[in-house]
Amino acid sequence: METLDKGLPQHIAIIVDGNRRWARERGLPTLAGHKKGAERVGEIVKYAQELGIKIITIYAFSTENWRRQKEEVSYLMGLFDDYARSKIDEARDLGIQVRILGDIHELPNSLQKALSQLMEETRNNEKLIFNIAINYGGRDELVRAFRKLLLANVPAADLSEELISNNLDTAGLPDPDLIIRTSGEQRLSNFLPWQGTYSELYFPQVYWPDFDKEQFDIALEEFRKRQRRMGK
To answer: What's the pTM?
Structure first.
């Protein structure tokens, strides 16, 4: 998976933070921020593909987000459902393969079906892999991976980093080169703790709905400046 520009990251993961604050500062309902944020996801994914980036991972809904107000959670589930159903043709046309990170079995049945269809309809696409982390938590992911290994009766002596990686939601994919969290918050919030061990971190001050192509270019330029030693 080589990109068009060797200075570009191969895999970018993004914590799309600040939707609610973006809306409040504009006197808009909180839900309007989520809607604008969803629109921004589509724009950035397509732009990343144009640049030659091969994998984009978006942190859409965490295992902790269920604690939010019922109205907001319900709206988000509907927004994800509409997004999944409306993007099938576009993803197919653009050659985007969609994968889901997280445990979808706790999601509403309608959304489970929509996400399953989206994955099935795009599974043979190869131009870009778009991971949507929904009902995802890094610790939960590790617990689910260890359970799979225990159920497979894997001997303790056979455990290895490679084996654990192969049982994560991101199995078969390279770890993210760059993790971006918008809104200025400087923490990972249970996002890709295993995979992000050597990722470069970037924390722009802008809210996600304002993270446009120009902001994305700034993030890429910042990445180019970094010297990745990987512990060497």
So the answer is: 0.94
Name the pLDDT band for 6 (thresholds 50, 70, 90).
low
Nearest-5° angle of CA 163, CA 165, CA 168?
Answer: 115
- The H-assigned helical ranges of 68-188 are 70-86, 88-94, 109-122, 138-151, 161-165
Catalytic annotation, residues: 17, 65
Q: What is the pLDDT of residue 72?
A: 97
CA distance 154 to 74: 40
Confidence bin at 229 (pLDDT 50/70/90): confident
Distance CA 228, CA 180 (A): 16
